Amino acid sequence: MGDDLAVAVAAVVPAVRAVIPPAPAAALGRLRLEPEPRRFPDAPESEVLWSLRSLPSWVVERVHGAVELTVAGLDVPAPSVTAALRPPPSGAFGFFASESEAEAVRETRLLHHARPGLLDLVADLTAGLVAEDRLLPTVEGGEAEIAAAHGAGHLAIALVTATIAAREAGRPETAGIVGTALGVAANLLRARPMPEGYEAALREKQRAEYRLPQAGSTFVTVRDHVFALTEGEFPAYGGFAENGLAEAAEGGVVVRTGTENGSVQVGVRVLAEPPAAADTLGWDEVVDLGWHAEHGSASVGGGVVSPPWPGDYRVRVHAYGRDDPETESFSLWVWAAPPAPPVVHARADRLGHRLRGEPEPPVVDRPEVRYRWIGRSRLTVAATVTVVTGLPADDVIRAFGADPGRPEPLEELREAYADPWLAVLDLDGVVVAIEENGFSGSHAPVLTAASRAGRAASMFWNVNGMTRLSFARGGELVSAFEPGLGEASADEEVTAALAGLDLENYRDRTEKGLVAVERFTGRGLYPEDLEDIDRRGVAYLLSDPG
After folding, report:
1. HSE-CB of 235 using CA atoms within 13 angstroms
2. Which residue in 73, 177, 307, 501 is a FRET match for 360, CA 20 to 30 A apart?
3. 391 Cβ partners below 8 Å, 6+ apart?
């Protein structure tokens, strides 16, 4: 039967292949390169039906519309192929469908229930026909042409085979035939190797489309304290003794992390020309390495790739937080450059010193670390935190332009998103005021009114990276600035509040501002304060947000 079936399919498959549109055919042809869709092990569906469901709806609908008339008009004298198929079930069965479901998917599901085993039979027959590549077309051209020919060749064989089997089984409906063939072809194409010449054609396409500069960021999996910028397999690496951060290797660059296993954020920038100077602000370790790419297109696990052609490159590796994996991150800059020795621009973390065999620097006290919980709270995106001493809560509320006699349900205001509001905690002489996504506490009139009997300080931040740190005392604004931009102050108490806080370094800038607020007023913000505000469940509308 095998040769007879192959002869019958070969007679009509070119006509079917000719009507398959190139775009969905190419999408099918590239399935080998795509991650396998998530599947549920307890699903009762057949492999073919699962594979059909995993395809984009546009692929299913465009193929169905394009091949429907050709498949319906096929005349394929063929040997019997369904002799081993068990008879259709007797009686009735329930069947649910939605209007949004593609007709080919719906009819294939019906076929799966009406003729059990038919989908798997078509899959087995098609797999046998394509195994020796006898019925597949010669693949030539660029990447898109090769991918389309690869996909259309397998799909056409599946369509003819499904037509023969379904008609013999008494189920000639075209939509079910098309859906079955798509599921069969997709399943095969996920496992079949790409055609000869595809890799070279893909590289030529990437080179033709590549533009400089490139930039992006992703989370990269770390195993055994390393990740790599690599063209393929993970490169061999040593002990990082030379610079304590990274090593150039055959096939890529390996980076040493503080995290043992997990993920870290890695930014990648591919530059059109060498950077003017090394920027070490905000980074603990910065190292330049020379690296030779064998073919190009190196990546750290997806996203931005290095130029897709071979040559000599320079890689600048920036690292932050290796001693504190909670904030660990990296940035890799790549540009074309002739071979040159490594250059170390910054070497500050303790891990790097250990790897280089150097005495470790002393542990630096960083008070801002204890405010990192803000980044995991509802205040992470935008807020203003104001701490006031010397006034009762009602007077603080009035200073913000709200009426203490008109409390509102907190959840209702939080869900409304329209009007600015304030929530307060009265803590025996200190009032903590919270504005979620608000900014009135950063304005001078509010702070001068709130500080008239003592002190007031606030830290504001928003999603756009804008910040404002302000200090008032005795009804006078003594200092207000954006951290990192001109925070010099002649006031001794403000200077003391800022002591040891590197505000020019953008890392933990919000947290540093909150440390300064706490130092100036004597009271900080704690996670339990937010819990207390939620338990109270009241807030106050601001009549004038400033």
Report:
1. 25
2. 501
3. 399, 431, 450, 452, 453, 454
Rg of the chain (C-alpha set): 33
For residues 202 and 8, what is the distance between their CA atoms, to the nearest angstrom?
A: 34
Please give the distance of CA 103 from its chain centroid, rounded to a whole number.
Answer: 33
Q: What φ, ψ does residue 407 adopt, rounded to 5°?
A: -70, 150
- Residue 227 phi, psi dihedral angles, 5° rounding: -140, 170
Phi, psi of 514 (to 5 degrees): -70, -35
Q: What is the rounded CA–CA span in Å between residue 459 and residue 414? A: 20
* Distance between CA atoms of residues 451 and 12, nearest Å: 88
Return the bridge partners of 479, or none: 471
User: Which residues make Cβ contacts (< 8 Å) with residue 45, sequence separation at least 6?
Assistant: 53, 109, 112
Residues 532, 534, 536: CA angle, nearest 5 degrees: 70
Instruction: Please list, in sequence order, all residues whose beta carbon lies within 8 angstroms of the beta carbon of residue 96, skipping any fewer than 6 positions away.
Output: none
| Tokens 């939605």 sit on residue | 98
Where does residue 187 rank: exposed (0-12), middle (13-18), buried (19+ CB within 10 A)?
A: buried
| Per-residue pLDDT, 254 | 97
What pLDDT shows up at residue 52?
A: 94
Count of CB atoms situated within 10 Å of the CB of 412: 11
φ, ψ at 250 (rounded to 5°): -70, 115
* CA-wise closest residue to 78 among 134, 13, 175: 13
Measured distance CA(49)–CA(29) in Å, rounded: 18
pLDDT score of 545: 44
- The predicted pLDDT at position 99 comes to 66
What whole-number distance in Å separates Cα of residue 135 and Cα of residue 139? 12
Cα 43 to Cα 26: distance, rounded to the nearest angstrom:
28
What angle separates helix 143-168 from helix 22-29, to the nearest 10 degrees? 90
Asked whether the beta carbons of 346 and 280 are under 8 A apart, the reply is yes
Residue labelled with tokens 């009426």: 403
CA 517 to chain centre: 35
| Helical H segments across 169-276, by residue range | 174-191, 198-209
Residue numbers in the chain where pLDDT is lower than 70: 1-2, 39-45, 90-99, 418, 487-488, 544-546
pLDDT in tens, 53-96: 999 999 999 999 999 999 999 988 878 888 878 777 765 555 55
Which helix (H) or strand (E) segment holds residue 128: the answer is helix 118-130
- The residue behind tokens 């996909």 is 151
- Residues paired with 425 in a beta bridge: 432
What pTM did the predictor assign?
0.71
The CA distance from 525 to 458, in Å, is: 11
Residue ranges in 403-455 assigned as alpha helix (H): 410-416, 444-450
